[in-house]
Write a structure and sequence with these properties.
Pfam families: DUF7885, LRR_6. The chain is of the alpha/beta class. The protein has 27 helices and 24 strands. Helix content is 35%, strand content 11%. It is globular and about 70 Å long.
């Protein structure tokens, strides 16, 4: 008997260098599931993927050590999904990534102190970015420890309400390489702390001082910063006109200035401050003092100005005409909720700014067909047009948008009179990626079908309360828009499981909102769960035919689900408990579930170990042991209690009339 020859099996991938394999992995960045599949092929692929990863976002603190050991070359770590990160965790991170760590995000973590931050600062010499936003218990002593990170370039301290000038002073002295600093809502920081930053941190490019109790006293120091490009002073109510004329000439490097909600600065002070900022490209003055012609005239000197945002400001026709007389052409203009916007002023302005790329005119309720005609004829290169609730614009005007603005990528016509003819025309904008059609009561499947056939790049579609849409329209979208990532069909009452089955073919779908769709059942939801494995957010509130049978497929296939709303559905204890197997689940809303008992709710809350936010009906609060709340809060979970009475749904037209009564 002849002996069979044995052949050694050679893995051809072993012949490729790590650099080539890393290049292959770079091509899989778009879908994280692809990288996971790659790592599961074999041991060598597993090891290559581990060495290749530079960014890490762990799901659970309890598995942190094992996760860190698997990935040795991480440079950026995001711990926002781990609310219970403590000092021991940070010490492990610091020791594991002593040489590689460059940035860390702790903006959703609440259990660490200055000790853990000191470990990071002392061990990770290459650390250049730290986000400590929302650390409401953080005090000055912790900032003194952060100051040991001598190479720090970017620091976010948003809503760190207990820090004071003393702590900020420590940062100023220790972190002289800072280029970005956000102190938004740090209510204990005043002029002294800001002046120390300006005096010591000469490399600052971005400074956010929103809602700080600072005065004019610190402005001269800020405006002396040689490289300062972005200055955010939103909501600084203590800044006024005094002495602004004397210091305005110093802000030569500014490219972005936000002084929205600064009610005590008039056009006089603004003109002085802004007029000499010769490099200014973007200006935001919303919700403040009335915009005057003299203020606008002072902007004419700014030859590189590209963007003006006046949202919520009082704007007259003369002001719009003054903007229209600029010698330079704007690229972005935002007039959302501005009173005083009329056809005459807006039409004059638009004629002079033909290079406009983004226009925001939401709630400009006085404009009509005339303004839209001028916008579409003058600004053919628009990529973004947001005009929610421009209710005086007739349906004929929307045809012009599709005929003339073929480069549109974003269009928001929520709560308007657009009809199928308008949609048919807008479908010519083949680059559309965001289309918002909420509360558009004149559109039907016939119009939406054109969008499905002609807009293959569509990623986001909002059909909220557009009751004329049925399965036929959704089927057209699902067939023609394979890259769809978000869809809202809430209160489209004729939507059934057929729509969900068709949408299950959109493999990149991550957000599905269908509240108030009574014909949707658990069978349709199961199709979404099986087909759309990237699903992150799900809202099936008031879908009475969604029950436990829909939760089981979610638990099995939707392992990326982070947020779910099940209020007013037919889910019971068993269905809620099955969701515990979704390790990513963080936000849970369950109001008015008739089949939910206190014991079942308690079991589900304890089993869903990743929860960070739970919204419950107030009636459950006295029915559950206080120890459960204490235990869950210690794990990092926050409870929101609601005492809402069940309200029957209104007909869409009645609902719209009710909203209009409130607005007017």
């Amino acid at each position: 008997m002849k002996r069979q020859k044995s052949y050694e099996i050679i893995n051809l991938f072993d012949l490729l260098s790590d650099e080539i394999m890393f290049t292959i992995l770079d091509l899989l960045n778009q879908n994280p599931l692809d990288k996971k599949a790659f790592s599961l092929v074999c041991k060598s692929f597993y090891n290559i993927e581990s060495k290749h990863r530079r960014t890490l976002k762990p799901l659970r603190q309890e598995h942190l050590l094992r996760t860190l050991n698997r990935y040795p070359n991480v440079a950026h770590i995001d711990l926002t999904l781990c609310p219970r990160v403590n000092d021991s965790s940070l010490e492990i991170v610091a020791k594991t990534y002593k040489k590689t760590l460059r940035s860390i995000d702790l903006s959703r973590s609440r259990f660490f102190s200055g000790s853990g931050l000191l470990s990071l600062a002392e061990n990770c010499k290459n650390l250049v970015e730290i986000d400590l936003s929302n650390s409401k218990e953080l005090q000055d002593s912790a900032l003194a420890n952060i100051a040991e990170a001598k190479n720090l370039e970017k620091l976010w301290l948003v809503r760190c309400k207990k820090i004071t000038d003393m702590g900020v002073g420590c940062i100023a002295v220790g972190c002289k390489k800072l280029r970005l600093l956000s102190l938004k809502w740090c209510l204990g920081v005043g002029d002294l702390g800001v002046e120390l930053i300006a005096f010591k941190c000469k490399e600052i490019r971005y400074l956010d001082l929103s809602c700080l109790p600072i005065t004019n006293e610190c402005l001269p120091s800020i405006l002396k910063l040689q490289y300062l490009e972005d200055l955010i002073l939103e909501g600084c109510f203590c800044i006024d006109d005094d002495n602004l004329a004397d210091i305005g000439h110093r802000c030569k490097s500014l490219k972005l200035l936000d002084m929205s909600n600064c009610h005590n600065i008039s056009h006089v002070g603004l003109s002085s401050l802004i007029g000499a900022a010769e490099s200014l490209q973007q200006l935001t003055l919303g919700y403040g003092s009335p915009v005057t012609v003299s203020l606008v005239d002072s902007l004419k000197k700014l030859s590189v100005l590209q963007s003006i945002r006046l949202d919520g400001a009082v704007v007259t026709c003369d002001v719009l005409k003054a903007i229209g007389s600029f010698p330079m052409s704007l690229r972005e203009l935002s007039l959302s909720k501005c009173s005083g916007i009329t056809d005459d002023g807006l039409s004059f302005l638009i004629k002079k700014h033909e290079d406009l790329r983004k226009l925001h005119i939401t709630c400009c309720r006085k404009i009509t067909y005339i303004a839209i005609a001028h916008i579409t004829s003058s600004c053919a290169n628009l990529v973004s047009l947001r005009m929610e609730s421009c209710t005086m614009v007739p349906r004929e005007a929307y045809v012009l948008i599709g005929e003339r603005c073929r480069f549109l990528e974003e269009l928001d016509v929520t709560d308007n009179e657009i009809d199928d003819e308008g949609l048919k025309s807008i479908a010519r904008c083949s680059n559309l990626s965001i289309l918002k059609l909420g509360i558009c009561l004149n559109i039907t499947d016939a119009g939406l079908a054109h969008v499905g056939m002609c807009c293959p790049k569509l990623k986001e579609l909002d059909l909220y309360r557009s009751a004329g849409i049925t399965d036929i329209g959704i089927l057209a979208i699902a067939r023609g828009c394979p890259d769809l990532e978000m869809i809202n069909t809430s209160y489209c009452y004729d939507i059934t499981d057929r729509s969900l089955h068709s949408l299950s073919k959109c493999l990149r779908l991550n957000t599905f909102e269908s509240r108030g769709c009574p014909l949707i059942t658990s069978l349709g939801l199961a199709a979404i769960a099986v087909g759309c494995k990237q699903l992150i957010k799900l809202d099936v509130k008031k879908c009475l035919s969604i029950d436990d049978a829909g939760m089981i497929p979610l638990a099995q296939f939707s392992q990326n689900l982070k947020q779910i709303t099940l209020s007013y559905s037919s889910v019971t204890d068993m269905g809620l408990l099955s969701l515990a197997s979704i390790s990513c689940l963080q936000n849970l809303t369950v109001l008015h579930l008739k089949g939910l008992t206190p014991s079942g709710l308690a079991a589900a809350l304890l089993a869903c170990v990743g929860l960070t936010k739970v919204k419950l009906h107030a009636s459950f609060k006295p029915l559950l042991p206080q120890l459960i709340f204490e235990h869950l809060e210690a794990r990092g979970c926050v409870f929101e209690w609601r005492d809402k009475v069940f309200q029957p749904e209104l007909d869409p037209k009645c609902w719209k009339l009710q909203v209009e009564d409130i607005v007017h």
